[in-house]
Amino acid sequence: MKLPKRLIGLAFLMPFMALYMLFYFISTGYAVYLSFFRQRGLNPPVFVGWQNFTQALSDSQFLASLEQIARFGLLQIPIMLGLALIFALYTDSHKNRLASVFSTIMFVPYALPGVMSGLMWGYLYSKSLSPFQIVFGKDFDFLSQDHLLFAVGNIFTWTYTGYYSLILGSSLKSIAPELYEAATVDGANAWQIIYFIKLPMLRPTLVLTLLFAIIGVLQIFTEPFIIRSLAYVPVNLTPNLYVYANAFSYGNFNYAAALSVIIAILTFAFSSLLLGLIRRLA
Questions:
Q1: In the beta sheet, which residues pair with residue 37?
Q2: Tell me: the pLDDT tens digits for 187-197?
């Protein structure tokens, strides 16, 4: 008996959908459920309604982590996406014969596990091992409280710039070559082609990468968590680090669940606001 094509497609999707439901929807639903309860000693959890959320919204450490990550994103996202755009335009240049090699090199940091990247940069930042001491001086400490967020931002930029560059480069390759030929015939130079053809055609992809970058910044965890083994990292350096501290250092899983739900809502709100703004401007 020959099965319909739709059923065959669904059969191939079922393993992915089952895992997706198990590790995303069910876990998210369980986190929401936990956020409405509070554990008191060895007694069973007690339903407390919105108390965990009201506590979170008045928690100075959590609010400080949100403020820090907002300032971090305002500085780091434009730098990272700007570099990604420059690299994408460079690899798309017809004069660049080593474009594929350059793209591969740029993508390697993203392919490395986050733990490995964090450890590697952590040791590069170490005062006793860092080769950067030659430039900045022996007294300069990348892992001090004044420079710690910058150090994390550098790791984040190094890791994800190549990834976003690959996305933008793929979008550039989808532009019809006839547009470039027509522009060249009309006397346009390389910079005019970039400004009047490539950048306008890249606008949807730039919005997509901006969304990915905002979500990624709100979820920063691995880099500061790994650096904790090399230097003191405040528990509220990032929102996710504060969630982890409440869950596994303080044992307050219900409060950590409420913090996670708030971070998820903020991520969704920022993404929706950005998409709405882009649609109005389009």
A1: 47
A2: 888 888 888 88
